[in-house]
What we know:
By secondary structure, the protein is α/β, with parallel strands linked by helices.
Amino acid sequence: DVAALQRSFDELIRRHEVLRTTFAIVAGEPSQVIGPPAPAALSFIDLSQFSETGGHGGSPLQSDSEAEARRLAREEAAKPFDLERGPLLRTTLVRLSAESHLLLVTLHHIVADGWSLTLLVQELGALYEVYRNCRGGPPWPPVPGNTYADYSVWQREWLQGERLEAQLGYWREQLGGELPMLKLPLAQARTGARGRGALEVVRVNSELTARLRGLGRREGATLFMTLLAAWKVLLSRLSGEREVVVGTPIAGRVTRELEPLIGFFVNTLVLRTNLSGEQSFVAVLKRVREVCLEAYAHQEVPFERVVEELRPEREIDHGPLFQVLFALQNTPTYDLALENIKVTVLEPELPAARFDLALEISETTGELDCRFTYDADLFDATTIARMAQHFVNLLEAVATEPQQPVSTINFLRDEERRQLLFDWNRTQTDFPNTRCIHELFEQQAARTPEATAVVFGDRHLSYRELNERANQCAHHLRSLGAGPEKPIGIALERSPEMIVGVLAILKAGAAYVPLSPDTPPERLEIMVQDAGIELLLTQAEPPDPERLFGVRCLGTALAKAPTSRRTPRSGQNAEINTSADNLAYVIYTSGSTGRPKGVEVTHRNLVHSTIARFVYYDEPVQNFLLVSPFFFDSSIAGIFWTLCQGGKLVLAPKDSERDPKALAAVIEAEQISHILCLPVVHSLLLRQAAGTQLDSLRCVIVAGEPCPPELPKQHFELLPQASLFNEYGPTEGTVWTTVHKCGPQDRATTVPIGRPVPNVQTYVLDDRLQPVPVGVTGELYIGGEGVARGYRNNARQTA
Length: 799
């Protein structure tokens, strides 16, 4: 009955002054202008031509007209209001068929709040029944006494002087200082404007709701406080923040006389809670209760006035004091029941998000409907769906064991926890865990003795020559006291002698310590003394064998026994009592304190790291170009991966990593198939290589620094025949820990570091060593065969 509906809206506008109020600028200040009662502008749109059939699936919308109706609803919701001219209440009736209509009611928030909507629907239903059945006037007395304008005047007069100062003083103390910004798992960076809104809904059953209510009752807290405490615990765990600030709306109808008025009475309170330490949930609940009660006692000052007082740094893409909202909708509900008419409330499509994230909970027949509305330009739907389930899981956990520390509450689903801890870490692979790395090389040398092992410019060493020279040097080192667990320094430029020296030290049973010849003397002395080096292989033997830090130096020319001392067996493999648990090398990192730290890596670690490459990489090494400086552990990958698999190890000229054209020439000349380098080096190669210089490449690995997101696209445009891998691994993880195979489709803002390599486990944990959900920031923990023995002479840091 369109006429009855029109009269109903007319009466609503006559009855409530605020619905005919506009806002004009008078003398530079905004003022309320209350217009006289006038007919409501009820628009009418007929879509019945789209379909004359009945609804489907219980929906009042027709199959053919649904899309058009929702389009109209979107347009209506997006249409701006004119605050000076009005109206600030818009109504549209859409005729879908003879017996199906859609009513769109749109209000500006300045004239109505959530409580007001309930009043409006309640009064609209009652008025419609009166006018439809010709029963006379409205079924209730006029709105008593005060109007919204009266309330506005009263609020301004009451909230001033000492009373205002007392209210503001509380908020200055509560919200003073730097407010934490929750670092939640965003799908992408902020863009400077609010994105579209989206919704995720999850339900808490009546049994759990009753237990939560009982928990709050035992602690003297309301259901709101209990749910808010749980929400803050989850936000803390997901963001890593120990202080959590959440906004919450409060009805603001402080007297009974205000309850029947339509208007904007709602205020926003900012609730700040400290969750640091090992607090139990009960302790957090008590603290949340205190914060809430104090805030309620100071709720009269408008949120805007608090913001004005605190003067926070303003940003266009998030709120000034908080980014996340929480609300328990306990406003009166009213089901619109009309005679002979079935009424269904349709879920509108959300406009732009008002907050990063909002959790609004309502109780229906003993159950809780939890509505997560969020900025879909910041969060993806799967993240919010996980978060919603985590909230329910956390509610179950605290209802079951409220005394447990909030820092260790498990809110992950069983299958999610199993995936994070076990399924994604099933990397077990057999490897020769009792062998030493030089034994793998010796086996390969026996299989392919005449194959080329090392190339440096015009110098070549076969596997046989390399093995024999290393053996000669090893026997000499043994005669000088080299053996298991004894570190020997090696400070050589990239050269065949460098490779001979490394293998010789290992064959002598000792551990090598790579040192850069260009290292400043004072830093070199720290490393030599810390490692306990007694022998040092250098480029040339100094005149005084004892002159360098008191350490005996051997030049490469004397690194093998002199001809007069050679024996028939000096070129053969030595039988050394070295085990897989003995040191293979000690490599020094820069150290976060500026003092170098020596990482001790065993043969078992190194054999594992090398065999893991055999397992993971499908493309066998043919010709590997060693670009990394010798004293970087990335060089170890290329040396042993190549020499234990029968490939040709090509040593790039000194400083060639800074000369992409020279590198490209070597790649072309030696037909390099594999290269491992910094991403920036590969990017320069791609830009400066000429013609077909890089066509021989089949496997490119970048490591040592974050891979730029534009690199995969650049790589596959120029080298579609070559695979691209992004490796990650600290020195303490024996060269590599995770690896990601890039694809042409990789267009993310960050190139992943991938999954754990064979026999390695990785976990992302919070600062209490609890696993964090997918997408949540934490620290990377590494376990398995890759983890090195420890730091040299630093048991505390090793532990």
